Amino acid sequence: MDVAEFRRRGKEMVDYIADYLENIEQRPVYPDVEPGYLRNLIPSEAPVEPEDYNDIIKDVERVIMPGITHWHSPHFYAYFAAASSYPAMLADMLCGAIGCIGFSWAASPACTELETVMLDWLGKMLKLPECFIAGTSGRGGGVIQGTASEATLIALLAARCKVINRMRASNPQLSESEIFSKLVSYTSIYSHSSVERAALIGGVTMKKVSTDKNFAVRGETLKKMIEEDKAAGLIPFFVCATLGTTPSCAFDRITELGPICNEENIWMHVDAAYAGSAFICPEFRPLLNGIEFADSFNFNPHKWLLINFDCSAIWSPFSSFVLQHWQIPLGRRFRSLKMWFVFRTYGIQGLQTYIRKHVSLAKEFEKMVLADENFEICAEVIMGLVCFRLKGSNEINQKLLERITKLREIHLVPCQLEERFILRFAICARTTELRHIQRAWSHIKKLAYEILQESSHCLKG
User: Fold this and answer.
1) How many domains does the chain have?
2) Pick from 252, 343, 344, 330: which is nearest to 291 by CA?
3) Which of 343, 338, 383 shows the shortest CA–CA distance to 359?
4) Which of 115, 219, 457, 458 is deepest in the core (most CB within 10 A)?
């Protein structure tokens, strides 16, 4: 492909992408395929001779699209939002074209410097303490990771290194392995699975902390566990607090947890993967109170801030301007271009409007659920997630979700809260409007009433 064909094909691809996104709600949101479907649609080996580009493009619809879950469809209400915007896509195109590997400042100065400045921009939008901002007298700063999973692992490894160095400095006779075997970390029973996985990779024990009635970890519960573990000769060293848990969007009380961690010299990492974007809105910023106690803080702009995957931001007051030291791989993509394009295109007010729209849609859905006596709300609706269920058994709710999934008109995923099977309804797509929410609720109600009638007939029989 020469430059002339690239120009032509590039314009065709932009048109294809625009058409795809413009008409995405016409496609079934969830694929109707079985595992292994794709292997039967393509040859078992790569072609020896070059193939025609037109044939490749035709196969996108024949091979790829049948197996796509359309995350950016307004009928997608599963997991949490995956951000998408045209400015971010254009920036990703430029990132791919530049193709620099930013493992050091010299490897591509703009890649390093723009990232540092964009994390400062974003940190100021969140009103983070000065110690987290690189362009101040503080030692801190932020860097971009691929995912919150990576950020949590990096924070845990940094905490592990810090505690081992501290223990050996005060007790030179202790071996690293002796210290290692006694390390213990903590997180909520409702934290993301990646937090526990970070502990597995880091080779340390992680204990799950129970929550209050709002599914939040409280200081008193954590303090008791720490005291018991210290009395048993263990070394508490790391706490991962969650702001906006995956099951219910609950908020651990970091104003209570932070002082305990600081007093005990325990690293507190705050994971706000989904909810962090909302803290740019003044009405949600109080949920971040207590961040001044944190040793690291992370959230995913690629979830709810219109910046396409992957873009996960982490800050620390102990950061390093050698960015390669704050990530697992050596090389770095020029991901800050996406932030620069999006922040300038939308402005802070535009981003706030977008987040508020999703929250208002979630509140509308909550009203619809509350108006129906057959359903119940299962957790406080704070942001763009509504946890709800049919009143009754776990089995009847499982049956409802199975029917929803089978019909493929909308896509939901469940969670477990206090051993109850819950349906999660997350406002995800940039293009979701009230009419989509109303249609989804009508669909859910129709299926629910069918199941209730069937259950009634079974009981009568």
Assistant:
1) 1
2) 252
3) 383
4) 115
Residue with tokens 């620069």: 340
Q: Which domain holds residue 106?
A: 100-333
Name the nearest CA neighbour of 102 among 305, 293, 335: 335
Report the C-alpha gap between 443 and 378 in whole angstroms: 20
Residues pairing with 315 in the sheet: 142, 297
Residues 6+ apart with CB under 8 A from 36: none
The continuous run of DSSP H or E covering 361 comes out as helix 336-370
pTM of the model: 0.90
Could you read off the pLDDT of 37-81 as tens digits, one per residue?
999 999 999 999 999 999 999 999 999 999 999 999 999 999 998
Q: CA 237, CA 175: separation in Å to the nearest integer?
A: 17
Query: Is residue 269 in some structural domain?
Result: yes
Which residues in 383-432 belong to E strands, given as ranges?
385-390, 413-417, 420-426
In this structure, the strands spanning 141-145 and 312-316 are: antiparallel
Q: Which two tokens stand for residue 439?
A: 């249609």
Angle at 82 between CA 429 and CA 141, to 5 degrees: 135
Residue 257 lies in a domain: yes
Element (H, E) at 354: helix 336-370
Of 98, 122, 96, 97, the C-alpha closest to 109 is 98
CATH of the domain at 186: 3.40.640.10
Which string of b and e fits 306-320 if b means at least 16 CB within 10 Å? bbbbbbbbbbbbebe
